[in-house]
Predict the structure.
Amino acid sequence: MRKEEKAAIINKVADALKASPNFYVTDISGLNAEKTYRLRKLCFEKDVKLMVVKNTLFQKALEKNNFPETELYKSLEGPTAIMFCQAANVPAKLIKEFNKAGNEKPVVKSAYAQECLFVGAQALDDLANIKSREELVGEIVALLQSPARNVISALQNGGQKIAGIVKTLSERSE
């Protein structure tokens, strides 16, 4: 491969790193053409960008983006595929779903999700349990709405009478 081609690949991967706050370093070696097609199709449906790249070129793209040298660099051995995504837990759920169908691969080597580094296949369950931004916002909204619902419910149960309102307010102040 010529130097210009390598530079183009490094730039492409570096741009993908800038565009996606989360990425997974996986091993998909040994998948036949049919399984690779199904994995790529599943990635496309879940808005995960799958890219197979040489380890040295990926490392140079990380360095280009000033990614600190960590355990991630040690996981760059053997065949590597990178999964880029916006939501931190989507690739983990995708991998679990794909592996439930009897596939041994892909295997997570490491992952960078929500500014945290996860190393090893044992981190897959932890990664799948990370809540997305939308899930967290939904939980916060539900928590904020809960007290208002309780007051409205108490007012409706107390009726339209002033005594019911006073009683409800006095119970809330305790």
Observations:
- The mean pLDDT is 83.
- Residues 133-158 form the longest helix (26 residues).
- The chain has two domains: 3-130, 134-173.
- Residues 3-130 form a domain with the Alpha-Beta Plaits fold (CATH 3.30.70.1730).
